[in-house]
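Practice problem: PF03932 family protein CutC
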Amino acid sequence: MKKYLLEVCVDSVESAQAAIKGGADRLELCGNLVIGGTTPEQALFEKVRELTDIRIRVLIRPRYGDFLYTQDEFDIIARSVELYRRLGADGVVTGCLLPDGSLDAERMKRLREQAGSMDMTLHRAFDMCRDPHSALEKAKDLGIQTILTSGQKNSCLEGRELIEELVRESGGKVDIMAGGGVDAGVIRQMISTTDVTSYHMSGKITLDSGMIYRNPEVSMGAPAAAGGIGEYEIFRTSREKVRAAKETLEKAGKEI
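Answer key — structure tokens:
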């Protein structure tokens, strides 16, 4: 029986609970998933930790955008890794690049040391790097446990050829976790064409706010009509989407 893992990325207590009920094996806890995720608030981590003993890896990303950080930004990243180590997170999810597109091995080494006994995931900064094969070798040397990747494409299905290469090259030393557009259907296709055993999904759906009164004259960000996100759209993880993905992995595991 083959062992598969399903990690669900969440940015609220409600989404964490839905992911757990859906059968997630592990959570990646973030803030602001609507912009790709940032470091979550300490209070959010503490609340989720109170509710469950599921493994939690925490995203450490100080801002939206690229992965080339100033010294001040990197200091914040390092402090956040230390904070979540003290708070009892099971792992951290982070990544730093150099201007030439290579992995910033020096800074990643410092973060790996800062993490101590926690696991570390190299997040999709990996997908923005110049040479994924070189980055994989550096990750091995640094003792990074997991690389989250879409195969340097917008979805893991598009990038599955590279992902399969990375699985082979990892030699079991780094877990290559497929992310980007993952759902039950994508998992079925990935299982049939790759040896990937770990999958990362958000399972997001959009809910309408419970607000009855809505002031049409005020927008707190870019208005929906201008391509932004409205104040009255709530993003949540779908228990049903997570459950469908988990059942697909369980079925695949029994068939092998």
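Discussion: The mean pLDDT is 94. Students who identified this feature from the tokens alone can consider the problem solved.
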